[in-house]
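Sequence design from tokenized structure. All designs in this work follow the same two-part layout: the structure record, then the generated sequence. An example of the structure record is given first.
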């Protein structure tokens, strides 16, 4: 039996994770601001994770074998958690995102496949080491600029950059002395500061399935449009992307909590369908014919239509012993769930 704290864990695959841990016989607690009660048999701590003093007070003298952080979005949140849990846990698992690899959100020069003016690299899945969080221009201790309301591209950049900088703080500690306008920066790789922290960042693929529980509505977007005969906006030559079923994601986090490896790890089912493949699966399940509308270069398209490649390689997790399913096996069932929920 392990003592496990889940920060967040009140919805979707986080909620499934909490019940899995409880059913496995672990001593499970969730920490949140009181937005929802935990399942029976699960303890709860009430705290605002951004309030370091309040978080320490809520934790008291408790320590944990594992902390699973479902809701860390910024480097300041990471810095608070790293300080508070440094002597309280033997393993810290942060749920991150595949969006950390998105070339459209990377600062210039920080990603090996996004350098402007270079010939296009072969389209191969990204591995964990393709993102080097020790190099500038990532400014680890600064918060990403707040996007303007309704600016979806700026929101995507802020989300991805917040996750990258949070990972960097957990992995290497806050870097560089803070000057009057922010951290000092140089062109040299940043060295770790402070003692090592037993940290894993789970870079999660696009999570689907669960019907109404899938709160983003992205799969529902396709189900509604194809059911109604409305064209789906796509890029002229869309790239494939990575997906994972919501229950498989909960299984992966449960498995990761019980391992000993550290560092980033990609979590994705086998297979990388593109938006046309997704439309075909939805259409087949609904008994309809899909219609597409090709958008101009640089224009926004439907979710999961990508004009750049960053599908993930899941080889590290597979080599460590996790057996992923196949998108082709579970996606039709996820479409049926969504169709029932939206009908």
């Amino acid at each position: 039996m392990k003592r496990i704290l889940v920060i967040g864990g009140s919805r979707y695959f986080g909620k499934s994770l909490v019940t899995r841990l409880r059913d496995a016989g672990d001593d499970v607690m969730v920490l949140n601001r009181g937005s929802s009660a935990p399942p029976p048999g699960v303890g709860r701590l009430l705290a605002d994770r951004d309030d370091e003093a309040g978080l320490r007070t809520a934790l008291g003298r408790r320590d944990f074998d594992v902390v699973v952080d479902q809701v860390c979005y910024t480097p300041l949140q990471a810095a608070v958690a790293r300080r508070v849990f440094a002597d309280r846990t033997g393993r810290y698992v942060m749920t991150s995102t595949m969006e950390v690899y998105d070339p459209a959100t990377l600062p210039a020069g920080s990603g090996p496949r996004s350098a402007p003016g270079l010939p296009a690299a072969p389209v191969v899945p990204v591995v964990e080491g393709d993102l080097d969080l020790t190099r500038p221009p990532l400014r680890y201790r600064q918060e990403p600029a707040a996007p303007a309301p309704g600016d979806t591209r700026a929101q995507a950049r802020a989300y991805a950059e917040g996750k990258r900088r949070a990972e960097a703080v957990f992995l290497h500690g806050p870097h560089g002395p803070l000057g009057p306008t922010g951290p000092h920066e140089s062109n040299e790789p940043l060295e770790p500061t402070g003692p090592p922290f037993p940290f894993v960042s789970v870079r999660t693929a696009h999570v689907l399935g669960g019907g109404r529980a899938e709160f983003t509505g992205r799969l529902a977007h396709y189900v509604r449009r194809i059911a109604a005969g409305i064209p789906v906006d796509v890029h002229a030559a869309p790239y494939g992307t990575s997906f994972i079923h919501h229950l498989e994601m909960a299984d992966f986090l449960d498995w990761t909590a019980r391992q000993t490896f550290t560092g980033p790890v990609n979590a994705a089912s086998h297979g990388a369908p593109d938006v046309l493949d997704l439309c075909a699966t939805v259409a087949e399940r609904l008994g309809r014919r899909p219609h597409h509308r090709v958008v101009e270069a640089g224009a926004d398209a439907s979710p999961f239509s990508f004009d750049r490649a960053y599908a993930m390689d899941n080889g590290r997790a597979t080599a460590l012993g996790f057996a992923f399913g196949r998108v082709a096996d579970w996606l039709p069932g996820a479409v049926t769930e969504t169709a029932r929920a939206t009908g």
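The first strand starts at residue 3 and ends at 7. We note this feature because it recurs in several other targets discussed in the main text.
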